[in-house]
Design a protein that fits this description.
Structural class: alpha+beta
Helix content: 40-55%
Number of strands: 7
Order of helices and strands: HEHEHEEEHEEHHHHHHHH
Number of helices: 12
Strand order of the largest sheet: 1-2-5-4-3
CATH topology of one domain: Beta Polymerase, domain 2
Distance between the termini: 55 Å
Radius of gyration: 20 Å
CATH class of one domain: Alpha Beta
Strand content: 5-15%
CATH architecture of one domain: 2-Layer Sandwich
Length: 271
């Protein structure tokens, strides 16, 4: 029986072939950012390959930068004829040429994790499309995937592959710092890693397991009856009923609103 379901990407070490126009766009954008000294780091499929050896077909190039730097990047690219648009001021802009595009990302769409200058300064030097650039470090790459846990896309396998591919040679204190109050999402991802790679559990240090599990046990031993519903931070569509019909907190809207106020304070000149 033939299925009408779209094909699911299969992990592989074989490098995909980019179309000439696609590759040229990526090269040109990276060249402009480099020439204009715009701080940035490449993430997405290219960063995953550098840390794990895994290639995947990609429809875009993901570039991480701070919200403060984004306007400069778009201005410089716009002056050179690229079509630029801000798709979501909380986290995403796009640069187009023809049918191909580059994503400029300043944080997670739910506003839980924000790209800061430290993400860029910690990035690793690399050459992509014959351009000197920087690749997101393993710690920030891992953190950037913690909330990619929606029904239609789940990056848990990427996190597991980053840990396995680096043999756990990760600054775990930095990972804890990046996860912050969302440490349960990290624990969830690490439990998946442990299930997938039981013989390599030691790639995650004992102190990380102990820290996270002790924190969990403490929360379970003293439950907080006022703790807020957080489902929409994971997937606002699958948890829509909780907000729309059951009257639980719309914490996603609060996070995004808070982020917008940080970026565009009331006394700013931004309309």
């Amino acid at each position: 029986m033939t299925s009408n379901q779209p094909s699911v990407p299969v992990s592989t070490s074989i490098e995909p072939t980019l179309q000439k126009e696609q590759r040229q766009l990526y090269s040109d954008v990276l060249s402009v950012l480099s020439a204009c000294e715009v701080p940035h780091a490449v993430s997405g499929a290219f960063a995953l390959q550098k840390h794990t050896g895994i290639w995947r077909m990609t429809k875009d190039l993901d570039i991480f930068l701070t919200a403060e730097t984004l306007s400069t990047a778009l201005e410089q690219l716009g002056q050179r004829g690229f079509a630029c648009e801000i798709c979501d001021p909380v986290w995403l802009a796009k640069v187009h040429r023809g049918e191909f595009f580059v994503d400029f990302i300043t944080g997670m769409s739910n506003a839980t994790i924000i790209v800061t200058d430290s993400w860029i300064s910690r990035a690793k030097a690399a050459i992509l499309m014959d351009v000197n650039t920087r690749i997101l470090a393993a710690e920030e790459l891992l953190a950037s995937k913690l909330f990619v846990a929606r029904r239609e896309r789940f990056d848990g396998a990427d996190i597991a592959h980053v840990i396995y591919g680096t043999k756990g040679k990760i600054d775990w204190e930095r990972v804890l710092e990046l996860a912050g109050v969302h440490w349960e999402m990290l624990l969830w991802a690490l439990l998946l890693y442990r299930y997938v790679y039981p013989a390599q559990s030691h790639y995650v240090p004992v102190f990380i397991w102990t820290s996270l599990i002790d924190r969990l046990m403490s929360k379970l031993a003293s439950p907080d009856p006022t703790a807020r519903f957080r489902g929409t931070l994971v997937d606002e569509n699958m948890f829509a009923i909780d907000v729309d019909e059951w009257g639980l907190d719309d914490i996603l809207s609060e996070y995004r609103s808070c982020r917008l106020k940080q970026m565009f304070p009331p006394d700013s000149n931004v309309a």
